[in-house]
Amino acid sequence: MFSNLVISKFIKNYDDISNKKVRENYGILSSIMGLIVNFILFLIELSIGVVLNSIAVIADAFHNLADVSSSLVTLIGFKLSNKPADKNHPFGHGRVEYLSSLLVSAIILMVGFEFIKSSFSRILHPEETKFNLISFIIIIIAIPLKLWLSHFNKYIGQKIKSSALSAVGADALNDVFILSGVIISLLVWRFFHISVDGYVGVIVAIFIMLSGFSIMKSTINPLLGQAPDPTLVKNIKQLAIKYDLIIGVHDLIIHNYGPTRSMASFHAEVPYNVPIMKIHDEIDMAEKEISEKLNMLIVIHMDPVLTDSKEVTEAKKEVARILKNFPEVNSFHDFRIVGTGEHKKLLFDIVITFDVKISKASEDKLIKNIDNEIRRMHPRYETIITIDRDYTETL
């Protein structure tokens, strides 16, 4: 409720998340809230850590300072990522958001590593931890602040589909567990006079590093070219086949140029006997309308297919039955017959999933085995088989 109140107060047209400016404002608001909350917590925890002589509290104080840096980097990242496209970057600067997240993760990992060293030093050379009730209460108060910040970042991250903000939200939730560990450390010393400060400091540092690795992983994956969102893949295919002249879709490839900045290309199967200009008009219309609906660039290639040939239909059914004996083949497309008389060739592409790891020699063997099966049943057909991959496949 409070998160929605903050959003409605500071973001104009907050429901229009497809608008790049609105999305940028969400990122800026999230970053500013992170700057404010984390800097306040840094000052409070640093003061408390010095007073209590607690390495665990000081460690988390500097983790909050790292979070301040993260919020600042995220803020700059959102501003730069929304720069308009130019000659050198024709698809815009959206990937800057990923780079800013990568920098955030590096900052967090550096802080975590430094405090692992400090905490081990405290374990080897333990010191008395002072207990102060006021400081203890202030640390407890910090927990709901971090809980809200985690919810706020995750909520916005999901709303605008920003992996960077979702990761920052997860990191804030880690802070809640870290603060809980600090409280346990202080209570153990207060009632049992046992110093576990160094050990809790190590746990704090491990949480810091785990959150850094998590953010880094979520950032590197899209930069390396991870598989697209299955929902997006499904939407593109469903929208395409709604057009009267598009009877099938294959070879769909989606390129990610940053959050909400993507382009896709695919082959649309169309009837061979419809005038080319009529098909061209419908493909143009499909490109324009799907691009507008999904807020991305769509490029469609036409593949004419025979729709009224009994020979092609029967041969295609027979090949489908044969391919069921080859579990590594997921599907096939671009099926056609060329030639006349007794000298005819079957041409088609088979799709193999990335779960199947096969070498070039194995691919050649697979093609040969399929060819042998087809020739065994239909000796008059030669085959030209191409191996294809599904570039939208996800685990």
UniProtKB/TrEMBL annotation:
Looking up SUPFAM superfamilies in the UniProt record yields:
Cation efflux protein cytoplasmic domain-like (SSF160240), Cation efflux protein transmembrane domain-like (SSF161111)
Q: Which UniProt keywords apply?
A: Membrane, Transmembrane, Transmembrane helix, Transport
> Where would I find the Cation efflux protein transmembrane domain in this sequence?
32-223
Q: Report the transmembrane regions from the record.
A: 26-44, 98-116, 131-149, 170-192, 198-216
Q: Where in the cell is it found?
A: Membrane
Membrane topology note: Multi-pass membrane protein
Keyword Transmembrane found = yes
Record's keyword annotation contains Transport: yes
InterPro entries for this protein? Cation_efflux, Cation_efflux_CTD, Cation_efflux_CTD_sf, Cation_efflux_TM, Cation_efflux_TMD_sf, CDF_Transporter
Q: Cite the Cation efflux protein cytoplasmic domain residue spans from the record.
A: 228-304, 315-388
Return the similarity comment. Answer: Belongs to the cation diffusion facilitator (CDF) transporter (TC 2.A.4) family.
User: What protein name is recorded for this chain?
Assistant: Cation diffusion facilitator family transporter
